[in-house]
Amino acid sequence: MINTKLPKIWYGGDYNPEQWEPAIWSEDERMFQLAGVDVATLNVFSWALNQPSEDVYDFSWLDEQMDRMSRTGVYVCLATSTGAHPAWMAKRHPDVLRVDRMGRKRAFGGRHNSCPNSPTYRQYSTRLAGKLAERYKDHPALVIWHISNEYGGYCYCDNCAAAFRVWLKERYKTLDALNRAWNTRFWGHTFYDWDEIVPPSELSEEWGHNRTNFQGISLDYRRFMSNSLLECYKLEYEAIKEFTPDIPVTTNLMGLYPELDYFEWAKYMDVVSWDNYPSLDTPVSLTAMTHDLMRGLKHGQPFMLMEQTPSQQNWQAYNSLKRPGVMRLWSYQAVARGADTVMFFQLRRSIGACEKYHGALIEHVGHEHTRVFRECAQLGKELQGLADSILDSRSGARVAIVYDWENRWAIELSSGPTVALDYVKEVHKYYDALFKLNIAVDMIGVDADLSPYDLVIAPVLYMVKPGYAGRIEEFVEGGGTFVTTFFSGIVNENDLVATGGYPGELRKVTGIWAEEIDALFPDQSNRMEMRQAWGELEGSYSCGLLCDLIHAEGAEVLAEYGEDFYKGMPVLTRNRYGQGTAYYVASSPEAAFLEGFLSNLCQDKEIAPLLADVPRGVETALRVKGESRYLFVLNHLADEAQIQIGNQVMRDLLSGEQIKGQVSLPGRGVLILESM
Ligand code: GLA
Ligand code: ZN
Description:
There is one protein chain. Helices cover 30% and strands 20% of the residues. It is α/β, with parallel strands linked by helices. It folds into three domains: 257 residues, Glycosidases (TIM Barrel, Alpha-Beta Barrel), CATH 3.20.20.80; 206 residues, Class I glutamine amidotransferase (GATase) domain (Rossmann fold, 3-Layer(aba) Sandwich), CATH 3.40.50; 58 residues, Golgi alpha-mannosidase II (Immunoglobulin-like), CATH 2.60.40. Strands 10, 11, 12, 13, 14, 15, 16, 17, 18, 19 and 20 form an eleven-stranded mixed β-sheet that branches. It has a nine-stranded parallel β-sheet with strand order 5-4-3-2-1-9-8-7-6, covered by helices on one side. Strands 21-22-27-24-25 form a five-stranded antiparallel β-sheet, covered by helices on one side. Helix 5 packs parallel to helix 8. The longest helix has 27 residues. It is globular and about 75 Å long. The structure holds alpha-D-galactopyranose (GLA) and zinc ion. Zinc ion binds next to helix 6.
C-alpha cells in the first residue's frame, strides 16, 4: 500500500508554482487548506529549470517548494520532469529529437518529444532522476515518485532503427527465424543482413493509421517501441531506487492508450497510476472498464487516480463543464473501482499556452468562491472523513474479461476481414452487459491466473500466445466457464496463422471449426435464432460485423444463423469440456443478447449481482477488505433514483446514516454502504 505515511485517500494534484510569482503561493497554501488538499505533484515539466545548461543543475526553486509543502502539511508526489527536454539540449544534441512516421526530423517543441533510444536523452534523464533522488531522499514531504509523464509516441530515427535491429537479434537470434516469423518470402522480402531491416514507417511498410504490408514487422515495432520507452522508465527507476528503495515509484498511464503494452509496464511499477479524461458523452461503463483495467494491471492492487479535471479539459473538441456533482461522482467511481487517491490536473490554472483553459481547483479569478472550488472542498472534507477505511481493499470479482495489448495491435494492423472491427468496442460490449447486470468484473491480462474466476470471457482472442490455449483448457477442465468469440484463435504471437482450421488452438476446448469468416457492411445484419429458449434468451437476436461460418465438432448448438446462405449454421455453441464449459459466439450480437447470455452464465455459476434492483444509470461496485465489504452505489442520472438495498442494515460511510430497504438516491448521488 502506498498511503502509509498519509493513511487516507490522497487528495490533490499537479501543481506548478514555478509558473507563478511568490506572492501567489501563500494564497495557494490557504486554499489548499480549505480544500483539504494533502498531496501535490511537483516538477512535472521543469527540466529546463532544473538543468539550465549542460553542466549546471539548479534545484533551488524546488528546494523552496518542497520545504514550503512540508511546512504547510502537504505531501509531495515528486516528478522527475523528463517528459519534455530543454531547448538547449535539442540544439546541442539533436539525437534527442524524434523522427516521425513520415520520416520528418522534429525540431524543438511540444512535450513527450524525446527519442527513447537517444543516448543523450537516456544519459541525462537518468542522471536527473538520480540527482533528484539523492537530493530529496530524506525530505519529509516526499511520498511517491512520478517518473516522466504520460509516456507515448513512437520514433523512427536512425538510433531507433539500430536499436530495433539489436532488439530483433535478441528476440529471434537468427535471420532465418526472423524471416520465418515475418513470412518474408511474401513480396520478396527475405533479409540476408540485419542492416537491411528498417523501421516500418510511411517510407517503408506503413501507410496511414494502422495500415501495413507486413503485420509481423509492424507488430514487432510496436513491441519494440513500447519496450524502448519502458527502458527509459526503468533507467530512471533504478537511479531512484539506489537512493530511496522504500519510496514507491509510478508513472502516469493513460487507460486504453493504444501504443504501450501496459501489462508489461506494470511489472516495473510499484503502483499503477492513470489519468482519467472522459468527455460528457463517454459511456460511464467505458470509464468503469478502464478503471478495472488499470486495477488489473497489477492483479487487483489499488491504483492512483493521478489526474482528472475538476471541471473541463482544453484539448477535446467540445470541452463541456462537468455538471454539478459530476466531479464528485466520477471521483467516487474511481475509488469504487480501486483508486486509493483522487488527484487533479491541476491545482492552479495557468495563464499562458495551451492549457490556460483547462480546469483547475483554483481558477483564473484566484479565490475560493467558485462552484468548482466549493465542490472540490466538499469532496476534500469527505475524503478526510473516510480516513483509511477502504484503503487497499480488493474487488471480489468472480468474472474476468481478458484484455491484451498485443492482441489489440495485431487486430488493428490486420488487413481484412473488416475495417470496422474495433477490439476495444467488442471488449466493451461484453463489459457493458455485465455492468448493466451489476456484476463485478476484473479486467485481466493473458498472464493472469485464471483460477480465482468462475467465468472468463476473451472477446476476439485473435492472437493466442504460446501456452495460453493450454491454460484455458486447464481452467475449463477444472470447472470454469469460458467464452470466446468470432475471429479468435487465428494467429500466433507473430501474427502467423495457425493452420488446420480456425479457431486454431482453441478448437479443442470450443469443440467447433470455423470454416469461413464473412464481413458484413455496416447496414447489414444477420440473426441469431435460439434453437430453444434458454434462461433469459429466447427467439431471435440481431448480429453483425463478422460472422464465422462454424461447424459444431462436439459442441452443442444453442443458436443458428437466421439469414443468408449460411442460415442454419451454428452461431452460438456450448462445449462441455472436463468439468467446465466453453461457449463460442460466432458473430457480434446486439446488447440484449449479451445481457441475457451473460446473465444465464452468471446464474449457472451462482454469481449474484451486487444489487438486484437498481435502475439503469445507477452503477454498483464493491471493495472488499478482510471481513469488510464496501458497496458503492453511484447514481449517474441527473434525477433521483429509488434503490432497493434489501433488509440488512447498512451504514453509509459518507452520511454516517444507517439505512435499509428502499432508499432514494439524489441525482449524481453516491452511497458507500458498509454491511453492519
Ligand atoms: C495530461 C497531462 C497533463 C495535462 C493534462 C491535461 O494528462 O499529463 O500534463 O496536459 O493531460 O488534460
Ligand atoms: Zn529515435
